[in-house]
Amino acid sequence: MKYITEFRDKSIVRSLVNEIKKVSKKEIVLMEVCGGHTMAIHNFGIPSLLPENIKLVSGPGCPVCVSSRKFVDTAVIYSSYKDVIITTFGDLIRVPGSKTSLEKEKANGADVRIVYSPLTAIEIAKQNPDKKVIFLGIGFETTSPTSAVALINACKEKVNNFSILSSHKIMPPAMAALIDEGVKINGYICPGHVSVITGSSIYQPIAEKYNLGCVITGFEPVDILQGILMLVKQFEEGKAKVENQYKRVVKPEGNLIAQHSMNEVFELRDDWWRGLGVIPMSGFKIREKYCMHDAEITLAVDVPEPQEPKGCICGEILKGLKNPKQCKLFGTACTPSDPIGACMVSSEGACQAFYKYDRFK
Ligand code: SF4
């Protein structure tokens, strides 16, 4: 199949691995900050192909994993209202809140529906004019544009019973916060999907300020290995720049239409990230102009400060300080079918990736 087979070609994989082994001399730690990369890296067994001096760690790249329990608790409260329909991407429904999850509340009769796009949520709102339909907006620059377009459409079409609870976030402040906190890495495998929207320049300040290589990388084995090779070469040569391995998809300027929609609807605010706490100007708030579609305003609720589950080390995993196997609950009390923390729930979470592909290694 075009565009898949050539990026999984064994002979190309072998030659990239040989080249990496030839070039790489020093100890190097590379972090991926995209749940898609986390899954792909473990699915394709990339760590087992690399020499021992190259360590890959996962960062805060899984949207469900970095979102707060308070967000889930708020959605759970909304779901208890008889005139509310909650619409959400599938991963989020199973994330444990402080006392329960949306999945459990759905089983108890709450109207919680999985959608693949907020545009479907608008259709649900049109079909149910006597209900308030809330879409749980989660994800980085990748999913924010679709939420933005949904709000713009809801305004144009006067679908006044549609609103979004926004937990949308942007990636560069978290990448900077990790280094500011003292996390030791030598380069970022930059997220391909985010970069399709933003373009490549958003990583420039990180490369310059922290002297770190940033390589935008695709999701197939050849992509990932080539991205690693580019980072290793930079590191060995003492360089730190932004490079784009994923040129077939990511353009320097990104997707201008998507950027325009995001800027039209959202403005930046301080936001909380699991493991990192509050990061200045790292989250998207809905602009006042669209406040009648902002669930935080139309359905304001007081939610007690939540506690993280006892024994769960998701926060340290999301900072690349520990790997899931170092959690005492991994694979015993915490499994994908009975998860304790968000990193095991999400199909992009590091704990689930380790459980699926690495737990017997
Ligand atoms: S294995 Fe479960 S409890 Fe442990 S860090 Fe991962 S999600 Fe949390």
Descriptive report:
The protein is α/β, with parallel strands linked by helices and 361 residues long. It folds into three domains: 5-60 and 181-244, 3-Layer(aba) Sandwich (Rossmann fold), CATH 3.40.50; 64-170 and 257-298, 3-Layer(aba) Sandwich (Rossmann fold), CATH 3.40.50; 314-357, no CATH class. It has helices at 10-23, 35-43, 46-49, 63-66, 69-79, 102-107, 118-127, 144-156, 171-180, 192-198, 204-210, 221-236, 256-265, 295-298, 314-318, 342-345, 350-357; strands at 28-32, 54-58, 84-88, 112-114, 132-137, 162-166, 187-190, 213-216, 242-244, 266-273, 277-286. β3, α6 (102-107) and β4 (112-114) form a beta-alpha-beta unit. The chain starts with 9 loop residues before the first helix and ends with a helix. The structure holds iron/sulfur cluster. The site of iron/sulfur cluster has 14 residues, from α15 and α16.
What CATH architecture of the largest domain would you give? 3-Layer(aba) Sandwich
Q: Calculate the terminal CA-CA distance, rounded to whole Å.
A: 31 Å
Q: Low-confidence segments, ≥5 residues, pLDDT <50?
A: none
Average pLDDT works out at 95
Q: Quick one: overall form?
A: globular
Structural Rg: 21 Å
Structural class: alpha/beta
Whole-number total of structural domains: 3
> Order of strands across the widest beta sheet?
2-1-7-8-9
How many strands? 11
Percent of sequence in beta strands: 15-25%
Q: State the CATH class of the largest domain.
A: Alpha Beta
Number of helices: 17
CATH homology superfamily of the largest domain: HypD, alpha/beta domain 2
Helical percentage? 25-40%
Main beta sheet: 5 strands, parallel
